[in-house]
Amino acid sequence: MDDYLVINEANWDARAATHVAAGYGIPELLADPEALSGVVRFDLPLLGRLDGLDVVHLQCHLGTDTLSLARLGARSVVGVDLSGESLRHARDLAGRGGASIDYVRSDVYSAPDALAGRTFDLVYTGIGALCWLPSVSRWAEVVSQVLRPGGRLFIRECHPMLSTLVVAPISAAASERETHGWLTAPGELAPVVDYPYFEQDEPLEWNDAISYYGDLPVTNPRCLEWPHGLGEIVSAVLDAGLTLTALREHDSVPWNALPGLMTADATGEHRLQVRPERLAASYTLIATQPLR
């Protein structure tokens, strides 16, 4: 396999420029010193205030969510990301947004060394992060290393089931609409399982010219991703010694993951327009580091 870090770093360096050019919620964060990103606003009921906590945000990208964590009262915030271009924009945003945030360039697996042994009260991972990692077990081990006794892991992530789906028309042969009238009719579009659900040794390779945000071309479109099943993620967290305290599934995700089938609400969350109860689109997992 080619060096996935080199490939994905180039991809995210390119995405950084297109995301900033498209806005990415940055003007809104700068216009209001109390504004939060849409992702963190969604998380807030389960995340809560962060007053007095030391926080690390793994895979922070442009720092829109990182700035939002600082605005929730954290004593200190560190953002970690592979992409130097993303961090350049993140530092600029923090400065313009009046927040003191330390940004560290590192891949996730090297984060404990890059952070020089620092530990934190909260490890936060925003949505769309785990798919860039070959091993979810190694990720959970990193979380455990940088989390203080009594500290908390908080992650909202794209549901593994959503990541298996493509949009395709239902064939007449596959339809049971005659006996179950509420099912999708033949010829209509529906989410159909086609991509792997469980973690694989070999990555999925993508060359999408357009990113998930905005409509500008990405100059380095090649990237590598890995699926991770929900059971694999939960097991990795438990095997790393953490205690699972919450696992919630949601019917929405903050981007149009299934074009033609999803509709956005006023907060930017997308869910199936018809019968959204069919699909868990994302989940929130919370775990704690036991007191030693």
From TrEMBL:
CDD domains: AdoMet_MTases (cd02440). One of its GO terms (molecular function) is methyltransferase activity. SUPFAM superfamilies: S-adenosyl-L-methionine-dependent methyltransferases. InterPro entries: Methyltransf_25, SAM-dependent_MTases_sf. Residues 55-151 form the Methyltransferase domain. Pfam families: Methyltransf_25. Keywords: Methyltransferase, Transferase. One of its GO terms (biological process) is methylation. It comes from the Bacteria. The lineage of its organism: Bacteria, Bacillati, Actinomycetota, Actinomycetes, Propionibacteriales. This is Class I SAM-dependent methyltransferase. It comes from Propioniciclava tarda.
